[in-house]
Amino acid sequence: MNNLTLAEMAKKVLTAGEVKNKLQLSEEYSRKWLELRKTGEKVHIGQVKCPDFPSRPTKPELLPPRLMPKRKYGTETGRVALLHSVAHIELNAIDLHWDMIARFSNINLPLSFYDDWVNAAKDETKHFQLLSKLLNDKKTFYGALPAHDSMWDSAAQTKNDIYGRLAIVPMVLEARGLDVTPNMIELFKKAGENMAVKYLEQIYSEEVNHVSYGSKWFNYLCGRDGLDPTPTFHSLVRKYFHSKLKPPFNEEKRAASGMPPDFYWPLVE
User: What is the pTM of this model?
Assistant: First the structure.
């Protein structure tokens, strides 16, 4: 691994400002780590001082959510904006998963914890590349439209709390993706955009794993520390997520990712 620890590799991804460089490093480091784990070689997690915010390219322009342009997703322009928005989410997710590794590398956790989040980062890198291809096919590119950075607000609030990070990022934000993606896929089906449907269905199926990683490690830590997972989750969401959860929920996919209804329905009221 070029004598880098996993935490050092994670930090290099986080501090890569240009998208191309960030993708290249994420792809390279995830492949190296997973290859080493297959061979059974000795690996080193290490520890680093994690940046509060990842480096970002000059484009897209980042706006507060309330200032984002309103789009009608049934139009061609709207569908382009939707793909751009999802690509922005996936780029954030690359950083969020590497940040999970770097930020909490001081906590004693099984190696399989790191395997899961490296796998998640690898998936998100591929997802961003698929969405970039769709944008390029429409004669545009990531960065051509404005975006908002509210996803990283949740990361910043949970930077010192691994329980909070697991609860908010995979188990609230990514779980929300499971709720809304089927309608997004249907929108592109109606427009006859078969390649977009194919890529979004692939992304949808793999995002279930990412929510399940959050659920698995949240429950693991609760068990290790003698906490009841359900009320602990409720308390953390109320502390860090300054909004109510919004139905309808994709109960089937949430259950497949290890989230029973009593985790999220009480947070609607």
Answer: 0.95
